[in-house]
Amino acid sequence: MDNIFDLTGKSILVTGASSGLGRHFAVSLAKAGAAIVGAARREDALAALVAEIGAAGGKAYALKMDVTDMGSVRDGVAEAVRLTGGLDGLVNNAGVNARGPLLEQTEANWDKVMNANLKGVFAVGTEVARAMVARGKGGSIVNIASLLSFRQTQNTTPYAVSKAGVVQLTQQMALELAEYGIRVNAVAPGYFETDLNRAFLASEAGIRLTNRIPMGRTGNYDELTGPMLLLLSDAGSYITGSTISVDGGHRVNSF
């Protein structure tokens, strides 16, 4: 039986690809055979990503794009289509955080997080969907949600609300795009060390939180690879509108 998780011949755009989970997604999907368009604002980091994938025998392109700017998104998706001949997949990963108590949050913080984490997912997702519809071959979109789409914790209000919105947006997109053969799902990671949370996880509060995870640890990046391959490959051909939690049981923990 052929490997239904194989991505050979597919082209996938990954936003927020310059570091953290986005970079991991780009590298791991390239290893599975996909041609990658890595999008972010940091051109130097993207150049390093493209070089790494190329050295391993894969194919990748760098794309400077700001997901909070609709013009940048339109131009970026058009360039991604030009580079690849057409997109088969999207990993909507770009995002930011603004930690702090609710009563100290500002309008600027709120707008910064919502623009990147929710407006950005909407902007890139709908623009890629338009390109997929025009191509007529369907495709798969994976939005990156969060454990905090479903649970609450201190000092994360704008982030948590934005990620809750990503889950609802995913379901709305899945409903409206199914007729075009476009599947839309989300992956909701629990705690994985990234640039956004490294300092917190090293703090006393972060250590206490880690100890409350049923599996007793934070996640390893490779533990996100399987769900991504499932949703982006033919293995997930009948999955749409779903959110897969990858959190060591944290979401179902009662305390």
Write structural notes for this entry.
The chain has 255 residues and is of the alpha/beta class. Helices cover 44% and strands 15% of the residues. The protein contains eight helices and seven strands, in the order βαβαβαβαβαβαααβ. The protein has helices spanning 20-31, 43-55, 70-84, 107-135, 157-177, 198-202, 204-212, 225-232; strands at 11-15, 35-40, 59-64, 89-92, 139-144, 182-189, 243-246.
**CATH-level-4 superfamily name:** NAD(P)-binding Rossmann-like Domain
Strand tally is 7
Spans with pLDDT under 50 lasting ≥5 residues? Answer: none
Q: Helix count, per DSSP?
A: 8
Helix fraction bin? 40-55%
Task: List key phrases describing it.
single chain; 255 residues; Rossmann fold
SSE topology sketch:
Layout lengths: L10 E5 L4 H12 L3 E6 L2 H13 L3 E6 L5 H15 L4 E4 L14 H29 L3 E6 L12 H21 L4 E8 L8 H5 L1 H9 L12 H8 L10 E4 L9
Parallel strand pairs: 1-2, 1-4, 2-3, 4-5, 5-6, 6-7
Give a quick summary of the entry.
By secondary structure, this protein is α/β, with parallel strands linked by helices. It has helices at residues 20-31, 43-55, 70-84, 107-135, 157-177, 198-202, 204-212, 225-232; strands at 11-15, 35-40, 59-64, 89-92, 139-144, 182-189, 243-246. It has a 7-stranded parallel beta sheet with strand order 3-2-1-4-5-6-7, sandwiched between helices.
